[in-house]
C-alpha cells in the first residue's frame, strides 16, 4: 500500500552501537519512498535528509541548527535594564453601555456618561468603534462626545428591529 504524497514521513533513526559524533557512516535518517519523487513533498524530504545527515556529521552545524529551531523564551529575552514599552491600548469601558440603555433608556445612559471625564469618554468611543468619521476623538467638549456615544448606542440597539 503506497503512502499518500501529501504527507511527509521522515523518521529520525536511533543511534547505533559504535556510533561516534561526526561519523559519516552513521545512518541518521530513514526516508520514505517520497524522497525520490519530484513533487514539492519529495524535494522537501530530500532537503530534510541532507540537513539531518549534515547535522549528524558536524557538531557545529547541529548546534547551529538547534539554535535556529529553538523558540526563544520571551521573558528571558528582555534585557533587565530596558523598561517595557507602554501599550497604546485604552482602558476598557467600566460598564455595559447597551445594558444600561436597555434598563434606563436614553436618560439613564446620559446620566452615567455625564459623570465621566473626556478621556474616559474617548476610551469608550475607541473601544466600541464609534468614531467612523474620525471626528469624535478630536472634540474637546465632553457633551459633544456624550451625544455621539448615545446616538451610536441607540442606532446599534435598534439595528435589526424589523426582524424582532
What does this structure look like?
- By secondary structure, the chain is mainly alpha-helical.
- 48% of the residues lie in helices and 4% in strands.
- The protein has six helices and two strands, in the order E-E-H-H-H-H-H-H.
- The protein has helices at residues 40-57, 59-69, 74-77, 97-114, 118-128, 142-158, and strands spanning 10-12, 29-31.
- It has a two-stranded antiparallel ribbon.
- Helix 4 (97-114) packs antiparallel against helix 6 and helix 5 (118-128) runs parallel beside helix 6 (142-158).
- The protein starts with 9 loop residues before the first strand and ends in a 6-residue tail after the last helix.
Estimated helix fraction = 40-55%
Count of β-strands: 2
What form results from the Cα inertia axes? elongated
Euclidean distance between termini CA atoms = 58 Å
The mean pLDDT is 75
If strands are numbered along the chain, what order do they take across the biggest sheet? Answer: 1-2
Radius of gyration: 31 Å
In N-to-C order, the SSE pattern is EEHHHHHH
Question: How many strands, which pairing sense, and closed or not: the largest β-sheet?
Answer: 2 strands, antiparallel
Helix-strand category: mainly alpha
Relative strand content: under 5%
User: Uncertain segments of ≥5 residues (pLDDT<50)?
Assistant: 4-19, 23-32
Tally of individual helices = 6
Amino acid at each position: 500500500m503506497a503512502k499518500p504524497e501529501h504527507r511527509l514521513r521522515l523518521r529520525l533513526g536511533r543511534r547505533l552501537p559504535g556510533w561516534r559524533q561526526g561519523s559519516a557512516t552513521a545512518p541518521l535518517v530513514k526516508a520514505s519512498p517520497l524522497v525520490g519523487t519530484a513533487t514539492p513533498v519529495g524535494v522537501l524530504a530530500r532537503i530534510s535528509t541532507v540537513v539531518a545527515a549534515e547535522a549528524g556529521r558536524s557538531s557545529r552545524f547541529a548546534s547551529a541548527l538547534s539554535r535556529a529551531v529553538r523558540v526563544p523564551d520571551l521573558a528571558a529575552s528582555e534585557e533587565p535594564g530596558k523598561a517595557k514599552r507602554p501599550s497604546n491600548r485604552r482602558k476598557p469601558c467600566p460598564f455595559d453601555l447597551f445594558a444600561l440603555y436597555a434598563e434606563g433608556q436614553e436618560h439613564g445612559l446620559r446620566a452615567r456618561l455625564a459623570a465621566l471625564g473626556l478621556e474616559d469618554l474617548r476610551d469608550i468611543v475607541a473601544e466600541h468603534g464609534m468614531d467612523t468619521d474620525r471626528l469624535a476623538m478630536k472634540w474637546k467638549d465632553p457633551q459633544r462626545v456624550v451625544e455621539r456615544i448615545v446616538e451610536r448606542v441607540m442606532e446599534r440597539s435598534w439595528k435589526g428591529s424589523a426582524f424582532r
